[in-house]
């Protein structure tokens, strides 16, 4: 349980609402949507909406510059004292937009040094950025890992864009899984806490996620968060259009139970938007649009 964690780890998680089940009742997080581009294609993604790395597809976030984002963080922090964590989670892949992502972190670290920094990525470019994440004192990194077998991956990812070249099918999925696992090992070596998000896709990777769980556990991942596919035709995802369904609540719980014991499982995720503000499950983003933040000055 959480109370058995070593002190140095407890210090990092005790007021992070995603990394500690207990903390999510008391502490809030916010996201800023500074990262529009993405370097891979997931069949459950609709680029018009927020990245499903972390978020619930279906609502378009207001895109911010790093300067606007930093202002918003200061405005929220002065309004919601329990706001402890700033996460960057989209609407595309934060590490496919490294200038915007790291500029935002730099500004927040300067003007609000008490706020913890958190990032969520598909992992493709993670090995290139671990050094910088470590330098910026980013203690929490989420990688979305849906497979460790490229044959499975080919059914989830039609392509990846890597080293200025587009790869397809099994070849693309092999590059992605190698980069994700390498990035995870590099985080573990540096003592950066990692959370693995997996999207459960019935008939595609549901049984395989037990193997993913073992692969990430053996590489030092701190937490595994298995989330249900949200697939609806009105969102226009490839899976939505092909009629691919999401799991039932019972199927999701059975898989989480199967993985429990291997490592800590997150069960309180609320699949947030890329511009979510507040306690998990609460959305106060409408109070902090750019117009309103400007008025607060
Ligand atoms: Fe945001 Fe993600 Fe950091 Fe949390 S959300 S970047 S780890 S601060 Fe949390 Fe939201 Fe679930 Fe993500 S409830 S979708 S796990
Ligand atoms: Fe969409 Fe996110 Fe996948 Fe990129 S990583 S394709 S933004 S779901």
Care to describe what's here?
The protein is built from ten helices and eleven strands. The strands form two sheets. Strands 10-9-8-5-4-3-1-11 form an eight-stranded mixed sheet. A three-stranded antiparallel sheet has the order 2-6-7, covered by helices on one side. The protein has 297 residues and is of the alpha/beta class. 48% of the residues are buried. The protein has one domain (2-287): Alpha-Beta Barrel (TIM Barrel). The protein has helices spanning 7-13, 66-79, 98-111, 126-135, 150-153, 169-189, 209-218, 238-241, 249-259, 290-296; strands spanning 28-31, 40-41, 83-88, 116-121, 140-144, 159-162, 165-168, 193-200, 223-228, 264-265, 277-278. The structure holds FE(8)-S(7) cluster and iron/sulfur cluster.
């Amino acid at each position: 349980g959480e109370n058995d964690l070593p002190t140095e780890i407890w210090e990092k998680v005790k007021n992070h609402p995603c990394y500690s089940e207990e903390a999510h009742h008391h502490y809030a997080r916010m996201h800023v949507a500074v990262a529009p581009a993405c370097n891979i294609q997931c069949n459950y993604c609709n680029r018009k909406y927020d990245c499903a790395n972390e978020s619930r597809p279906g609502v378009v976030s207001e895109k911010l510059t790093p300067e606007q984002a930093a202002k918003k963080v200061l405005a929220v922090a002065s309004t919601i004292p329990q706001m402890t964590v700033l996460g960057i989670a989209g609407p595309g892949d934060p590490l496919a937009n490294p200038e915007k992502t790291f500029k935002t972190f730099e500004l927040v670290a300067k003007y609000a040094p008490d706020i913890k920094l958190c990032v969520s990525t598909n992992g493709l470019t993670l090995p290139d950025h671990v050094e910088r994440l470590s330098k910026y004192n980013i203690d929490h990194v989420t990688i979305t890992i849906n497979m460790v077998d490229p044959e499975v991956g080919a059914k989830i990812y039609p392509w990846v864009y890597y080293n200025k070249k587009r790869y397809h099918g099994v070849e693309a999925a092999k590059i992605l899984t190698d980069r994700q696992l390498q990035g995870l090992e590099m985080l573990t070596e540096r003592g950066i806490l990692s959370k693995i998000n997996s999207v459960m896709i019935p008939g595609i990777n549901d049984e395989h996620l037990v193997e993913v769980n073992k692969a990430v556990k053996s590489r030092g991942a701190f937490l595994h968060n298995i989330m249900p596919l949200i697939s609806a035709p009105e969102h226009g995802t490839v899976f939505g259009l092909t009629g691919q369904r999401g799991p039932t609540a019972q199927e999701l719980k059975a898989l989480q139970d199967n993985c429990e014991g291997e490592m800590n499982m997150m069960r309180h995720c609320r699949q947030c938007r890329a511009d979510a503000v507040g306690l998990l499950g609460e959305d106060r983003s409408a109070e902090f649009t750019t117009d309103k933040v400007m008025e607060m000055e």
